[in-house]
């Protein structure tokens, strides 16, 4: 679980990762963060090159 408090916001931002992987918690977070990075690269490529299906 991750809780972030941001200035000017009444409530914190709370994040969860639910998985059935048996990795240690830091390994799971690293895996999901790297997956998000790859998805951002794909999104940036789509916008930069006007990729379509």
Give the topology.
Elements: E1 2-4, E2 13-15, H1 25-49
Antiparallel strand pairs: 1-2
Features:
mainly alpha; 47% helix
Percent helix, as a range, is 40-55%
Beta content comes to: 5-15%
Global shape: flat
**Largest sheet, spatial ordering of strands:** 1-2
Question: What is Rg?
Answer: 16 Å
Average of pLDDT? 86
Return the structural class: mainly alpha
How many β-strand runs? 2
Q: Overview of this structure, please?
A:
With about 55 residues, this protein is mainly alpha-helical. The chain has a domain at about 20-53. Helices cover about 45% and strands about 10% of the residues. It has a two-stranded antiparallel ribbon with strand order 1-2. A hairpin with an 8-residue loop joins strand 1 (about 1-5) and strand 2.
What does this entry show, briefly?
By secondary structure, the chain is mainly α. Helix content is 47%, strand content 11%.
